[in-house]
Each structure stands twice: as structure tokens, then as C-alpha cells.
Amino acid sequence: MLLLQSRQSNIDPSPELLDKVMAAIQCRQELILLKRKLAFAFCLLVLSISSYVPAVGSFSAQAKSAGMFGFLSILFFDLKSLGYYWKELAWSLLESFPATETAGLLVLTLLVVGAIIAMVRYIKIIRGLSQLIHN
What we know:
The protein is mainly α. It is built from seven helices and no strands. Helix 2 runs antiparallel to helix 7, helix 3 runs antiparallel to helix 7 and helix 4 packs antiparallel against helix 6. The radius of gyration is 30 Å and the shape is rod-shaped.
């Protein structure tokens, strides 16, 4: 045992070893943080996609109750009356437009796209860090 201790005390680590160890620790900490961000982006994606179905249902119910589909059928099938009454039809369409539900769908769409973009970005960074750590 004494012989082993004396041999170990004579071995000096290289000066770059501390730098390499500290860089590896920092890379692993960044990797853990990025994995947490990836998990958060995935949860955001799942929640926004799962809330998309009720939002579409609410939008279609509001559009149906406001009679938007009737205005749209006139718009596509009765072009002659559309030429005469286009101002009144435009105002009626704007008055019956479900703006709140449309804004909700837009927000959910932006959340889905943002979450997908963040996930792709985090996955690319995680792959690069993982290759750096393993090499």
C-alpha cells in the first residue's frame, strides 16, 4: 500500500487535463439544460395540438351560429347578386366573423410552429454536443 501511494504522488497530471475535464463538465451541463428545454418544447407541442381540436370545434360552432356558411354560399354560387349587394354582404360577413375563435386558432398555430422550430433547433444542438462529448 505504501509503495502504491509513493508511485501515485510522483505522477503529475498534464496541464491540459484540468481544462479538458472542465470543458467536459460544462458540455454535460449544457446538454442537460438543452434536454430540459427540449422536454418543455415537446410538452408545449403536445398541449397545443391537443387543444387545437376543441378550438376548431368552437370556431365551426360560432361560424355556423353566425350564419357565415350562408354568406359563403352566396359568395360562391350567386355572383350576380354579389355584384349588386357586395357592400352589404361584406359588412354582414365582417359582423358575423368569429374573430375571437380565429385569434385562438392563430395563437395555437403559432405555438405549434414555434414548438416544432424549437425542438428541431434543440435536437440539432444536442446531437452536436453529444458527438463532441463522445469524441
